[in-house]
Amino acid sequence: MTQTQNNKGEVVVRLTDVYKAFGPKEILRGVSFELRRGKCLGIMGGSGTGKSVTLRHIIGLMQPDAGKIEVEGKDLATISRHNMQEMRKNIGYVFQEGALINWLTVAENLALPLRENTKLSADEIDAKVQEKLELVYIPDAGGKFPSEISGGMKKRVGLARALITDPDLILYDEPNAGLDPEISRSINRLMREVSDRLNVTSLVVEHRIECIQTVADEVVFLLDGHVHVRDNVKSFFQPTDPRLKEFLGV
Ligand SMILES: Nc1ncnc2c1ncn2[C@@H]1O[C@H](COP(=O)(O)OP(=O)(O)OP(=O)(O)O)[C@@H](O)[C@H]1O
Ligand SMILES: [Mg+2]
Fold first, then answer.
1. Domains of the chain listed by start with CATH number
2. Nearest 10 degrees: CA dihedral of 100, 104, 105, 106?
3. Which ligand has an atom closest to residue 48 CA?
4. How many angstroms separate the CA atoms of 152 and 137, rounded?
5. Given CB 3.0 to 4.6 Å as the disulfide criterion, which of 23, 31, 99, 239 pairs with 18?
6. CB 214 near ligand 1, within 6 Å
7. How crowded is residue 238: how many other Cβ atoms within 10 Å of its Cβ?
8. What gap in Å lies between CA 41 and CA 15, rounded to an integer?
């Protein structure tokens, strides 16, 4: 965790009029929003509206056709390769599918980003891995292989791995996908707890209303390539906008 955590209220992520098309398919058609330090922003929208594409832009895996993406005040279009690598270390990404490496143990999966990106000693890495396993309440899972653990536990490991480099910003892509309601609830509580305890800033893409209600402070509704509605989480789920009402089924 860096010194930045004290600067509450400053903008961590800002998208300004972002456009992205794949061939003739215009997916993002002027997306703008900002996310402030310590806050959690939910992103909702129909399948294929560009939620995952938006997250990929923020970690620099995709470049916009037009518009600007700033992370920690830096324009990703002009950032050097070195600074981009530094930036990525500061961003945790929880993948929809878990994306654990099956032939490595849980502990080895967690250690990988530290082995590749830091100069920490083996003992220091072991200590960090154990600290994160404890943070997500699976202290004894380190020696297990991904095939030996449940879906809910895999999600916890995915979260621990995203947190392993102590990022200031964490992006979740459908953290409830494939989980039953009870396990989803425990994951959502854990996400909330992590963001409160570590004071991380987060973006959560999720279809499940309960997840967004548990973890987000504000929510944007993506529609037709734009942010159609942005509101605090309470008002968002008592919508007046007809298209949002239709989407939420209320
Ligand atoms: N690399 C790519 N090349 C071509 N088309 C892509 C690429 N990535 C995404 N798309 C298309 O962009 C659209 C938006 O994709 P995206 O994955 O962001 O949707 P989403 O909002 O996350 O949907 P879901 O809720 O189903 O996950 C889809 O039509 C998808 O097929
Ligand atoms: Mg998606």
1. 10-90+167-250 (3.40.50.300), 98-166 (no CATH)
2. -30
3. 1
4. 12
5. 31
6. no
7. 10
8. 13
Give, as residue ranges, everything with CB less than 5 Å from ion ligand 2: 51-52
pTM, entire model: 0.90
Residue pointed to by tokens 């993506």: 222
pLDDT tens-place values along the chain, 250 residues long: 444 445 668 999 999 999 999 999 999 999 999 999 999 999 999 999 999 999 999 999 999 999 999 999 999 999 998 999 888 889 998 877 668 899 999 999 999 989 988 899 999 999 999 999 998 889 999 999 999 998 888 888 998 998 898 899 999 999 888 888 888 898 899 899 888 888 899 999 999 999 999 999 999 999 999 999 999 999 999 999 999 999 999 9
How many Å lie between the centroid of ligand 2 and the Cα of residue 238? 24
Q: How far is the CA of 55 from the centre of ligand 1 (A)?
A: 11
Report whether residue 138 contacts ligand 1, using a CB cutoff of 6 Å. Answer: no
What is the position in ligand 1's atom list of the atom closest to the CA of 23?
4
